[in-house]
Amino acid sequence: MAFGMEYDVLIIGAGSAGLSAALTLGRCLRRVLVADGGPPRNAASPGVHGFLTRDGIRPAELLRLGQEQLAPYETVEVQCLHIDTLTRQGKGFCATGHGTADDTPITVSARRVLLATGVSDILPPLPGFRELWGRGVLHCPYCHGWEVRSQPLAVYGQGRTVTGLALLVSRWSRDVIVVTNGPGHLTPNARRRLRREKIGIREEPITRLIGAKNGELRCIEFANGDQLERAALFLHAPQHQRTPLAADMGARLTSKGAVWVDSKLHTSIPGLYAAGDTKPGTQQALLAAADGNHAAIVINESLTREECPK
Ligand SMILES: Cc1cc2nc3c(=O)[nH]c(=O)nc-3n(C[C@H](O)[C@H](O)[C@H](O)COP(=O)(O)OP(=O)(O)OC[C@H]3O[C@@H](n4cnc5c(N)ncnc54)[C@H](O)[C@@H]3O)c2cc1C
């Protein structure tokens, strides 16, 4: 048990960020435990788009391949575990959690911890949003704009956020309508910019989204009974961290609730790193994988410095 810890690195989360970090750390001969706590953020989506060599792959299949390619690296273990607590133990960490299949309690120690736990999207509490999420209700035109290009689209939200997203989505389709579900809080300038791109605005309250069984959107129903046919609706949903582990440890968070990191993906807690959606920045599966690779290199170098003092 080098340095009194069972593992060199505990990676919490087995999405693109976590599995990519595990691959690089396995190649560094590091003893790694990956806690796989369940489905990734994009589980509801039919395909991961824009991922080099894997464009359109099912989210679960991408991660299955990621786990399969860890098999040669005997120092890496992936376990179906949810980590519940994280505390300091000397220069390292002690984590407790439970098996996701059988609830068995576990305690592990590790010299470094990588948080690759991602975020959850908070959808409006209206019928249809959750049901159509990932297919008819979309969060990002870079991920799904091509699939609905040139079709009638809606963009949901209020104020500056909806204006920016609607202008962006209008690069994929010339038929875009902003739906604000009540007062849109749009400035005269925002209205002018939308009008210039021929983007309509509907400010009536929405009662529900009507979709097909396969999750595609058919129309948006307003409180006055009107139905607006649309092929998809985009929104920037607020997010929260999938786990409060960083906050519980007292790690610095940004004003938007992301885990703050420096340019080396180090959080404000020594030895605790963060990669992927959990930290600030553009959220894409490929960028999360790149982050995992980056964090793994930084962590391996920090372990090497500890092992080979000046
Ligand atoms: C509907 C939808 C569609 C998307 N489509 C695309 C796309 O087409 N292309 C693209 O590039 N991006 C897409 N994205 C964005 C993409 O899903 C994320 O950028 C990516 O999943 C981030 O990877 P991650 O590893 O940081 O987090 P995640 O993939 O969310 O993985 C985090 C993992 O950590 C686990 N976890 C959380 N807490 C714990 C804990 N306490 N213990 C153990 N495990 C834990 C979670 O269960 C999860 O498996 C989409 C997102 C959504 C919502």
Q: Report low-confidence residues grouped into runs of 5 or more.
A: none
Distance between the termini: 23 Å
Give the names of the bound compounds: flavin-adenine dinucleotide
User: Which CATH class of the largest domain is shown?
Assistant: Alpha Beta
User: Which structural class do the helices and strands define?
Assistant: alpha/beta
According to CATH, the fold-level topology of the largest domain is FAD/NAD(P)-binding domain
The CATH architecture of the largest domain would be 3-Layer(bba) Sandwich
The Cα radius of gyration reads: 22 Å
How do the SSEs run, as a string of H and E? Answer: EHEHEEEEEHEHEHEHEEEEEEHEH
Continuous helix count: 8
The geometry reads as: elongated
Largest sheet: 7 strands, mixed
Percentage of residues in strands: 25-35%
CATH superfamily of the largest domain: FAD/NAD(P)-binding domain
Helix content: 10-25%
Number of domains: 2
Number of strands: 17
For the residues shown, what is the average pLDDT?
97
